[in-house]
From TrEMBL:
It comes from the Bacteria. SUPFAM superfamilies: PRTase-like. Residues 17-164 form the Phosphoribosyltransferase domain. Belongs to the purine/pyrimidine phosphoribosyltransferase family. It is found in: Cytoplasm. It is an enzyme of class 2 (transferase). One of its GO terms (cellular component) is cytosol. This is Hypoxanthine phosphoribosyltransferase. Pathway: Purine metabolism; GMP biosynthesis via salvage pathway; GMP from guanine: step 1/1; Purine metabolism; IMP biosynthesis via salvage pathway; IMP from hypoxanthine: step 1/1. It catalyses: GMP + diphosphate = guanine + 5-phospho-alpha-D-ribose 1-diphosphate; IMP + diphosphate = hypoxanthine + 5-phospho-alpha-D-ribose 1-diphosphate. Its main location: cytoplasm.
């Protein structure tokens, strides 16, 4: 679904489907160059990173496997609860592997610092992060993100996997929502 199909629900389109796709292709090339002949485990953070990981891995030429984690940091709304809980753990071991966490968006950085701490304790050979979107540093300055799609303003965004109360994930553009959606 495109932003135009949503009419008055959309306040502003920040990135079009085409711009997002172009950036994913660039990041995939960068990742390929960095990993060369090493096999990388892409760890997607459900549900938001589904689109990013699916597109990223298809633009990569490196050998890869994928695994998924689900954590809760936000409730149904737009504010972080500050508490991170594992809802679904990885299916396989990452010991000795080259792991790349794939995140949809980094806001406070709480989710990511929890994930980094948790996954690094499993002794991967390397552990890096790719985030499709990143908001201005709150706590984010303390977490090292090697690959960033776009730095965006401190506004709630939807689309390309990002949701508001479970909706708008299938929007292919990335946009902010009109105030009436929240009321
Ligand atoms: P923290 O604050 O821990 O949050 O970095 C990261 C997680 O919060 C969600 N999040 C958003 N989801 N639009 C969304 O749809 C947003 O603007 C947004 N900001 C944060 C998201 O699940 C992310 O993994
Ligand atoms: Mg998420």
């Amino acid at each position: 679904m495109r932003a135009a199909d949503l009419g008055s629900d959309i306040k502003e389109v920040l990135y079009t489907e085409e711009q997002v796709h172009q950036r994913v292709v660039e990041l995939a090339a960068q990742i390929d160059a960095d990993y060369q002949d090493r096999e990388v485990v892409l760890v997607g953070v459900l549900n938001g990173a589904v689109m990013t990981l699916a597109d990223l891995c298809r633009s990569m030429n490196s050998h890869m496997t994928m695994d998924w984690m689900a954590v809760s940091s936000y409730g149904v709304g737009t504010t972080s609860s500050g508490v991170v809980r594992i809802l679904k753990d990885l299916s396989g071991s990452i010991e000795g592997k080259d792991v790349l966490i794939v995140e949809d968006i980094i806001d406070t950085g709480l989710t990511l610092s929890y994930l980094l701490q948790n996954l690094s304790s499993r002794d991967p050979n390397s552990l890096e992060v790719m985030a499709m979107f990143r908001k201005p540093p709150a706590l984010t300055s303390s977490v090292d993100v090697k690959y960033v799609g776009f730095d965006i303003p401190n506004e709630f965004v939807v689309g390309y996997g990002l949701d508001y109360a479970g909706h708008y994930r299938n929007l292919t553009d990335v946009a902010t929502l009109a105030p009436h959606v929240y009321s």
